[in-house]
Amino acid sequence: MKRITKAALTLAAAVTTVAAMAVAAGPASASYPHSVRLQCTAAPVNGALHGSVCALASGQTTAPDNYSATIAATRVNLTFPVTFTLTAGSLPPGLTMSTQSATSVVITGNPTKTGTYNFTIKAAIGSNTSTIAYQITVTVQGPPDQLVCSPSVNGGFLENGACVLPDAEIGVPYQEGHLATSHQAGGTLSVVSGSLPPGLTLPTTFTGAADIVGGTATDPGVEPGRNFTVQGTGDQGQPLYQAYTILVDQNLPLSINTCCTTLAPDVGQSVAKNLFLTGGAAPYTWSVASGQLPPGLTLQTFSDPRDANNELVGTPTTAGTYTFTMRVTDYQGDQATQQFTATINPPLQITPTMPAGTVGVAYSQDLIAQGGVPPYSWSIFANDPLPPGLSLGTTAPDFNNVLTGTPTQAGTFSFLISVTDAQGYSVNATVTVTINP
In the chain, what is the straight-line distance between the N-terminal and C-terminal CA atoms, in Å? Predict the structure, then answer.
């Protein structure tokens, strides 16, 4: 798994809030903030923030053309209903705004004309106000043109609202920066915030399926990634907006780290082993090139979707030695392979009975464990004592592995004991020993 540090990208609405302060009566006066704040991305609005504009759900003029979008506000230390007012622009023809609750209004109707409509709404309770610019795009049928972020379309992964494109490599011509659109009909795009990595450029106009970031990346310095936001128009002038990230890697050959090519868990013990690489350009995909994974183990993605199937996980079910070869492939098609060996040990178990002893006669017997990986370390539980007169002793390389001493009391004694093998796996069992008179 390749460790990648990404700069956080935060988009915030331009929301103006005027808050009044109320003074409570009493011997010691205290002030409490009052505010009203319009929402965009949170439910029930579920809009998309395009810079300072909240883009609401799109509409269409052909059936089914019923449209509904909620404008909502939050209140802090206020109980009166929020008043919503359209202060600039206009709703799409055929749509109206009506009160739905004390903190929201609903825009409903049947759009009658295509286009992109921008308008501003103010929410107010007395002198407490909040304003946001909204946008609704209406098409004849279907969703408007939009920028697409998909592994299958442009190798992009949407992370925290930004489309992370395939990595560039220093000194290698970059051809993977496809800013694909859903209508695949060309358009215009420009960078409105942030910047492309040094050496890369973006044409302002494009035809076909995508605008393409091209060029040859140079050393980006301390921060290997660049965040940038593009804005423009697509098919029929419909608005396009999306934040992107491109990471720039050192130009190194792709290889699998050889530090951790063996594993030796016990049957029944859970396994979670990450696979590591160096070089190449993300995104990466891991697969088994040859051989067989131990029964009960599979590949899964650990955390970063741009490093797919990079963790070996599961619970081994069958003891034995398994040899298999892993392959990693980067987005440019470069591959590397490495052989791994997994030795699955029999399950760690404790023999539950011990030879009998006699009161007043010296006793020394080994605690017996099978499976796992020796040496073993034993321990007892404080609330479950050993037979009177006996204690745990050690014979290397194990620890506390001998029940020894001179019994002082007859009877059948049971006690809970734990054994831990060399890999840190532990099991508990109740052991019984009889002491004769």
Answer: 63
**Token pair for 27:** 């011997």
Domain at 208, CATH number: 2.60.40.10
Best CA proximity match to 307, nearest among 277, 269, 352:
277
Outline where DSSP puts E strands in 126-182. Answer: 128-139, 157-159, 162-164, 168-169, 173-180
Same structural domain for residues 233 and 265? no
Structural domain including 204 reads 151-249
DSSP state of 64: S
Helix, strand or coil for residue 129? strand
Q: Which amino acid is at 378?
A: W
Would you write out the chain's pLDDT as a tens digit for each of its 437 residues?
444 433 333 323 333 333 333 323 333 334 678 899 999 999 999 999 999 999 999 999 999 999 999 999 999 999 999 999 999 999 999 999 998 899 999 999 999 999 999 999 999 999 999 999 999 999 999 999 999 999 999 999 999 999 999 999 999 999 999 999 999 999 999 999 999 999 999 999 999 999 999 999 999 887 888 999 999 999 889 999 999 999 999 999 999 998 878 888 889 889 999 999 999 999 999 999 999 999 999 999 998 999 999 999 999 999 999 999 999 999 999 999 999 999 999 999 999 999 999 999 999 999 999 999 999 999 998 778 899 999 999 999 999 999 999 999 999 999 999 999 998 889 999 999 999 99
Please state, in angstroms and as integers, the Cα–Cα distance from residue 225 to each residue in 65, 228, 317, following that order.
43, 10, 43
